[in-house]
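Thread: quick sanity check before group meeting

JM: Hey all, I'm pulling together slides for Thursday and realized we never actually wrote out the predicted structure for the chain we discussed last week. Dropping the sequence here so it's in one place. If anyone has concerns about the input, flag it before I start.
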Amino acid sequence: MIPEPHGGRLVDRLVPEAERRKREAEAADLPSVTPFLDQVYDTEKIGIGSYSPLEGFMDGATVASVVASGRLPSGLPWTMPIVFPLPKDDPGGRLAALRPGDDVLLRDPASRPLAILTVSERFRLDRGAIARSVYGTEDPAHPNVADLLAAGELAWAGPIRLLRRLDPPEGRPEPSPAELRAEFARRGWSSVAGYQCRNPPHTAHEYLQRLTLERSDVDGLLIHPVVGRLKKGDYRPGVILAAYEALVEHYYPAARVLVRPLSITMRYAGPKAALFLAIVRKNYGCGAYIVGRDQAGVGSYYDPFACHRIFDAYDLGIQPLRYGESFYCRRCGWMATEKVCPHPASDRIDTSQSRIRRALAESGPIPPEIVRPEVAAILRGPDVLLT
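JM (edit): ok, ran it. Output follows.
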């Protein structure tokens, strides 16, 4: 069955189109700020219900609860603080003067009105506690810890009213949770598995997706690439989307697989991020969630299978589909795991992204055992990585 949204209700803070111009005119004289891109994406996702049950940015007590227990004050599982650090650039001190009950206009990167935040609290962020609890390290070399340390110490909390959606990423439609749930119903899918990704597909990814599609309790698969702010060296969003679209076009039954982008900033928090990303997919209507090895990891900060174990500690109301490490076996002639393959390591081909990147950097061939030729052709294109 399609699960209820997290907390039982799908949040909708988007101002109706008939009221938008009036709201924008009323907001014209408000103090305004263009947030850091992370908060731009978070604002939209709060407004359309991706982060249900949140209706705004977290207050101090909620952040403390999430950091201490991985739960909201209500007890509902939630592992990622969604916060709004005050901008450091504040000419005239107008923003610092805001008090509870005041409104501030949030602008998108093109300086258009995006949302109105009603300040309920201004509080100090314990950035060290957040880094240790969520990311498991205070190392400034960790990309999200670096962002956290660069942010201001003070944060605003409060509900938002979303005035407009962001432009669709790479021109691809990005449905809201309500719209995607309606699409599942139109397709007759009553059970959907969500697949989180931030890289183009190789055969190990395809193997997990095919295993999932073989399940009798899965009607359809949502491939939901994160294409918001990534980190230097990641594949560009358009490359990720084009690669998955090619895979689906050539190798999957179109009636059972859907590729749609998710524009949020990637949190490289290992198990805490895996749980958060599962909650988001639950809000989009996924009753099952694929958890591969080292999901949402970066470097060597996390045990590769901690992202599996965290689902034993929290009941999200959806089914985690946990898969181990896979490889291409020359003698088996396809992808396998140690559970089904008896052959020695010398017969196994590593399908990791590092091997693909090395082949690209050296302009060498990418074996079809690792990447489908249609995907390899896209990865051979110009300017595929973020710099």
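AS: nice. Residues 17-167 form a domain with the Sulfate adenylyltransferase fold (CATH 3.10.400.10). The chain has two domains: 17-167, 170-379.
JM: adding both to the slides.
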